[in-house]
Amino acid sequence: MSAIRYRASFMAFRAALIGLILATLLAACGAEIASPTAAPQPPTAAPAVAGAFSLDDWASVEAAARGQTVNWHLWGGSESINTFVDTFYGQALKERYGITLNRVPLADTVDVVNQVLSEKEAGKAVGAVDLIWINGENFLSLKQADMLLPAWARQLPNSRLVDWENPAVSLDFGAPVDEMESPWSSAQFQFIYDAARMQPADLPRSYAELKTWACANKGRVTYIAPGPGAFQGTRFVKQALYEVSGGAEQWVGPFNLALWDQWSPQLWAYLNELEPCLWRAGATYPKDENELHSLFANSEVDFSITQAIAGAGPLINEGLVPATARAFVFSDNMIGDFNYVAIPKNAPNQAAALVLANLILDPALQAAQIIPENGFGLGYGIDVSKVSDPAAASQLAAAASQLGEAATPAAELAAALRSDIAAEYQSLIEQGWERNVLQN
């Protein structure tokens, strides 16, 4: 992808983010809302899906799904997200469609990827997984193994609310989505500080400033150890890579080993210079987000992190951080993206999985997911400019207005926003960090 094309597409993503948070695009209505119970306009050459239904007849999908149990495998590290899923989706599935939700919590999404790959190796035509919360290298692994249900995401009735022309939606860590997954929500890396202890003017606004601040306040900063199940730690390191290499643009596009070899030594050098100034002098690192929140809440360190567009709000409501916690971003290099759901090709309850994927895009549930007290806190997966129903548009706008002072201002999020990089860098960062930083 050329730099010009990247800048143009990324500016579109940035503009979309501002619209999602501020709901300023609601007047630009261009599409009708599809109720989860309404049949869509028949798509051209819609593919048939295994089972007694076809995607060009949505009523047949809902009929086939009734009475099924949908086994949704998703990361289970946040109790607030678990509660949101059980409450909002579980109840709606049961009441509207007679579907039972079985939420299967994962320590790491790679666990369910390995399960699906093992089922393929064992020759199981029918597996045990219906839906996966997925993106990045895990999506790519199942796509390359030909274990994802094809050509379904744009056939959902509510898919008309998704901006499929946005590269941030149609590409997942640089890999084309190809209708094999459907967006759920959006997120962006942010830091958290305590307004009772620090003022905005005192906050570091770059990785260089963070190192200076940490070494002037030794022991007051740490970050999550990168590795499987700790994508937040890996993302922290990716952002440092952007800065030490001079910017994010050069990392967009296919995997580039020569580029990695050029800049990874500078990345490890930065992190090793930072390490003596960290909590416990870098002898140990938090293993996950909850451990970092605990250190922050106990005033052992001065910063935590979040991916939630609602900022610190959901964590405050959950009692994990002080009521005076606030989110903020550096001036640049804060990675944001969309995350998705996908259906394995051998899913036992495909119809129920399709109904759930469509339900996730319902404007009322999209509005619910960004309200801090509901505990999910991630951003919209739909484009609010495509919502023309006045009541739904009003609901989305009202939800955006509830983010409050614990959230990073939308303009600051957009100014700092950068996209993620190809999935192949993930293991290089995680393994390289362990070898060059943790064990060094």
Q: Structural class of the secondary structure composition? A: alpha+beta
> Can you tell me the residue ranges where pLDDT is under 50 for at least 5 consecutive residues?
1-13, 18-50
Summarize the main sheet. Answer: 7 strands, mixed
Please, how many helices? 16
Q: Find the count of extended strands (DSSP E, 2+ residues).
A: 14
Rg calc: 21 Å
> Could you tell me how far the N terminus lies from the C terminus, measured between alpha carbons in angstroms?
36 Å
Task: Compute the average pLDDT.
Answer: 88
Structural write-up:
The protein is an alpha+beta fold and 440 residues long. The protein is built from 16 helices and 14 strands. Strands 3, 4, 5, 8, 12, 13 and 14 form a seven-stranded mixed sheet that branches. Strand 3 (69-75), helix 3 (79-97) and strand 4 form a beta-alpha-beta unit. Residues 1-13 and 18-50 have low confidence and may be disordered.
Topology, element by element:
Blueprint: H1 3-22, E1 48-49, E2 53-54, H2 58-65, E3 69-75, H3 79-97, E4 100-106, H4 109-121, E5 131-134, H5 137-144, H6 167-170, E6 171-172, E7 175-176, E8 181-188, E9 190-194, H7 207-216, H8 231-244, H9 257-274, H10 289-297, E10 304-306, H11 313-317, E11 325-328, E12 334-342, H12 350-360, H13 363-370, E13 379-380, H14 390-400, H15 410-416, E14 417-418, H16 424-438
Parallel strand pairs: 3-4, 3-5, 12-14
Antiparallel strand pairs: 1-2, 5-12, 6-7, 8-12, 8-13, 9-10, 9-11
In short:
The protein has helices at 3-22, 58-65, 79-97, 109-121, 137-144, 167-170, 207-216, 231-244, 257-274, 289-297, 313-317, 350-360, 363-370, 390-400, 410-416, 424-438; strands at 48-49, 53-54, 69-75, 100-106, 131-134, 171-172, 175-176, 181-188, 190-194, 304-306, 325-328, 334-342, 379-380, 417-418. The chain is an alpha+beta fold and 440 residues long.
